[in-house]
Amino acid sequence: MTRSRNFKFAAIVVLAAALIIAAFVRVALVNQYVTQTLVESYPEGTWVTYDGAYAGVASENTDGLSIRVDSASLVSPRQFIDSYASSQVNLTENVIGKYADITPATADTPSVLAVKISLRRSPTNVDGQFSAIDWRIISLQSPSLSMQPDWDLWELADTHMIDQSAFSIQEGSEYATVVPFSIQSQGEYFDPSPLRTRLPLEQGDYEFVVTNSPVRKLITFATH
Length: 224
Prior knowledge:
single chain, alpha+beta, 9-stranded mixed β-sheet, two-stranded antiparallel ribbon, DUF5028 domain-containing protein
């Protein structure tokens, strides 16, 4: 009886070990043949052609679109508005935006990454779009921190960007603009305001994620 039990126990152990080995082999095979996302990195000042790669959805139709980061600087909301806003803004009072407000207490906090970019669209691209809503900038010092366009400030600087999460430019043309990026977070738990606040940023190196699929295209740059 004892031998029988030992035999059964040994058989169970062998079967369990075989299943574990089979599982590891399967995972290894899947990892070997899974499609890897290609990553291309470009320096500041270089034209990056989309070549069909897209940020969010394939319907962006990006063949013939190009983008270039010309420069970037770390500024406060006041500095950004003074430099780029198309109209006067009174920062002695709260400036209420759709997503984040500017208060006199936060107007001088360096919380905005002002990125000067150039965009290009070839004459053959009929309906391509730049999906700004999917643009992301990552701090290489703190990779967990991700920024997206600061829509409230962008609208103050460029009226064409009002309610434009994705946009086009004229075929066969180039367009230059300054895009403010910021890290926005919800306020304190008991804060009655539904708006977000801009978090302070630091000088350093950053990575602009232009597209995500099938090629992840990045532009690296430093603040000046």
